[in-house]
């Protein structure tokens, strides 16, 4: 049996609800007002103290005040006081240099080292580079550049090495030595070089090892080519190595994850006052091979998201050590006087919604490398010496066998 509420009771109930809403609104407004007043009061106290300090310095300081230095130091001090480890104040000149910084590599397309006799030894020749087109090879010595001996006492190795770079389209003349023979001089034209950032080092037991040495705008295309080649070579699994890689280019990493993952949100971003929003998404295509990501405490920034994306996207496991823990977005704001400030404005999280700032990306299989930091370079990617690599190989092979067994059972089922 239903009960009817009288008109008077309904009006009274609505009046109570309205009163509660009104009281709560007033309380919130008062709290907000009090907070603003408190902030204004604190700000006024700060400005008064700063004005008092400025007046005292101008009246009593023995030296001469450099107004430009004083202004920039005041701004820098404010930024430092925020406690943001990645915040930075840039003077107008610093900002101009920052905004004009060119990260492109213009040269002949080689990596080099100094020979014991002082010459420049070519360690690597980049594919399809001017150096390769000129016939230069890994192991060759560059004994002169534009007629100047590279081991001359009148110049340094760093200066001679730098002369391999220059404006795109300019030419240099190199005399190479191969073995005991000095070869004919070759003319090489400098140009913008696409530095290899993805190296497919080997295919061992069907598992391809891909070393990601850096993050650049062309890294996704290099990654895609390396994966396609690995699949063509019969790879049953993939190992990605991002140990020692640091970058803030989240857009490029999102493009790398787009190659690997099926349709999902790969990167979320949240500001101090907002909820996480989808920042980047992958499309329907992906890579079906089992994967592992090698990482450690020197994996920093956007490469950490790469590891988290593979892990939380359900495509593979992480091996090695937890990452550095830089999962924040820094933005640059130019100020009216031409200076600028770099501030942390948001925190990133991966496909599963978990952030990794400060804590780092979790490692599924923790393995210590067993060498000090100075000895890492000679160990990374060397299967017999790299314990983390060997573990990743084991993990990927186990996943590949499990997937093969599952497919076999599925095909034999009635």
Provide an overview of this structure.
The chain has 414 residues and is an alpha+beta fold. The chain folds into 2 domains: 105-193, Pdz3 Domain; 198-404, 2-enoyl-CoA Hydratase, Chain A, domain 1 (Alpha-Beta Complex). It has helices spanning 7-60, 67-81, 92-100, 130-133, 157-162, 219-232, 250-260, 302-312, 387-412, and strands at 88-90, 105-107, 110-114, 120-125, 141-145, 148-149, 171-178, 181-182, 186-189, 191-193, 198-204, 207-212, 237-241, 246-247, 264-270, 277-282, 291-295, 300-301, 316-320, 328-334, 340-349, 365-366. The strands form 5 sheets. Strands 3, 4, 5, 6, 7, 8 and 9 form a 7-stranded antiparallel β-sheet that branches. A 6-stranded mixed β-sheet has the order 11-12-13-17-19-22, sandwiched between helices. Helix 7 (250-260) runs parallel beside helix 8 (302-312). It is flat.
Average pLDDT for all residues:
86
**Uncertain stretches:** none
The percentage helix is 25-40%
Number of distinct beta strands: 22
Shape: flat
Our measurement of the CA-to-CA distance between the termini, rounded to an integer number of angstroms, reads 58 Å
What structural category do the secondary elements indicate? alpha+beta
Radius of gyration: 30 Å
Determine and state the CATH class of the largest domain. Alpha Beta
CATH topology of the largest domain: 2-enoyl-CoA Hydratase, Chain A, domain 1
Describe the sheet with the most strands: 7 strands, antiparallel
Going by CATH, the homologous superfamily of the largest domain would be 2-enoyl-CoA Hydratase, Chain A, domain 1
Q: What count of structural domains?
A: 2
Number of helices: 9
Q: What CATH architecture label of the largest domain applies?
A: Alpha-Beta Complex
